[in-house]
Design a protein that fits this description.
The chain has one domain: Deoxyribonuclease I, Chain A. It is built from 6 helices and 12 strands. The strands form 2 sheets. Strands 3-4-2-1-12-11 form a 6-stranded mixed β-sheet. A 6-stranded mixed β-sheet has the order 5-6-7-8-10-9. α3 links the parallel β7 and β8. α3 runs parallel beside α4. The mean pLDDT is about 95.
Length: about 270
């Protein structure tokens, strides 16, 4: 099973690019972030023609996540569990940043698609919201790991875990993505027993997944690695490889992120 994660940065604005990549790469499962559309305006028919079942958790103009699967899906969850008042303004959290489903393959795999809050500017309420959201994700992961099943939590984590994950780490000092608290929260996820696929696949330094549109970042390879697959032990045992599709950044109307694809051996 090939499981892709991709922050598409507006599925409707980049539909032709996304479809072209899907036809070429042919992943079994795609976790999308920043679809930037309500559920009703997600271009379902275009993806259904490629053989995908679709579950979305959309939001007008911002955020939004989706899971596409060539297998049926069940046990769909939209949004993370959390206390009342968990939103950035102290009200209930209405940001569409998490969707989860069981992929009903011969060996079922539970997949969560994540668009973690950016957290900038750090001196505002956005950074505490980011950290609180990460704690909610960690707590939910604890519950999911108790099922002892293949689990993949993938997406745009908006965290630069180490200086090696940035071309110019000094440029990110003081940014929410590079703050020690963000890095510690990411490590706390791994300490649960989750394995990061890039480490399992021994991806070389400089394997970035995001390049800003500004200041020639792509042309200068001034990138960062912020898109990850975290695998339960049952999924890590079946891990066979990872590919970062850097060439997608050179397509027409590209996202500022590129797809990252893992392979799991689901032979019974």
């Amino acid at each position: 099973m090939r499981i892709a994660t991709w922050n598409v940065n507006s599925v409707n604005a980049r539909l032709a690019t996304v479809l072209a990549w899907l036809e070429a790469a042919n992943p079994d499962v795609v976790c999308m972030q920043e679809i930037k559309t309500v559920d009703e305006k997600f271009p379902r028919e275009d993806f259904e023609r490629l053989g995908y079942n679709i579950e979305t958790h959309g939001q007008k103009s911002y955020n939004g996540v989706a899971i596409l699967s060539k297998h049926p899906m069940s046990d769909v969850r939209r949004g993370l569990p959390g206390p009342e008042g968990a939103g950035p303004d102290g009200t209930d959290d209405d940001q569409a940043r998490y969707i989860e489903a069981v992929i009903e393959a011969p060996v079922p795999v539970r997949v969560g698609a994540i668009y973690l809050p950016n957290g900038n500017p750090v001196a505002t309420g956005k950074f505490p919201y980011k950290l609180a959201w990460m704690e909610r994700l960690r707590a939910h992961a604890v519950d999911l790991l108790a099922h002892e099943e293949p689990l993949v939590l993938c997406g745009d984590y908006n965290v630069i875990p180490t200086p090696a994950d940035a071309k110019n780490p000094q440029n990110w000092v003081g940014d929410a993505l590079f703050m020690p608290e963000s890095q510690a929260a990411f490590r706390a996820m791994k300490y649960l027993g989750l394995s990061e696929a890039g480490e399992l696949g021994e991806q070389p330094p400089g394997t970035f997944t995001f390049w800003d549109y500004q200041a020639g970042a792509w042309q200068r390879d001034n990138g960062i690695r912020i898109d990850f697959h975290l695998l339960s032990p049952q999924a890590a045992d079946r891990f066979r490889g990872i590919e970062t599709h850097r060439d997608a950044r050179d397509m027409d109307k590209p996202s500022d992120h590129v797809p990252v694809v893992i392979d799991l051996d689901l032979g019974v």
